[in-house]
Design goal:
alpha+beta; globular
């Protein structure tokens, strides 16, 4: 399981694009999303910050849900700060770092999600 915040793929890609003064021809949306996650990781100093896909929950924001072609299952992209594994949980971020992350992501709620690859 992962503890994190659901994010819209389009928002994350747009955030990544905003980091560059002009479009980068060889970058697709996924590359921009990766750049956004790395930038947010540096801003918050949360070393464990990661982009994950998790299974849909009824309380997931509707604009975050997508259906990957390989599974057909509803999944949600999240920015996670830790997993339920003991070592990860023990290394979760400080409250101040986590609050900074929530501020960047617009104050969205963090919850526990079930991973698609556990």
């Amino acid at each position: 399981m992962y503890y994190g915040i659901a994010v819209e793929q389009s928002w994350l890609a747009d955030y990544g694009k905003s980091l560059y003064p002009k479009p980068v021809p060889e970058c697709d949306d996924f590359s921009y999303m990766a750049a956004a996650v790395e930038h947010i990781k540096r801003l918050t100093r949360i070393k464990s910050l990661a982009f994950e896909t998790v299974y849909f929950r009824p309380n997931a924001p509707p604009d975050t849900i997508f259906y990957p072609a390989d599974s057909g299952a509803k999944v949600v992209p999240i920015i996670s700060v830790c997993s339920s594994y003991r070592r990860s949980f023990e290394r979760r971020p400080t409250r101040a770092a986590f609050d900074h992350l929530l501020q960047i992501l617009g104050g969205k709620e963090a919850i526990w999600w079930t991973s698609t690859h556990d």
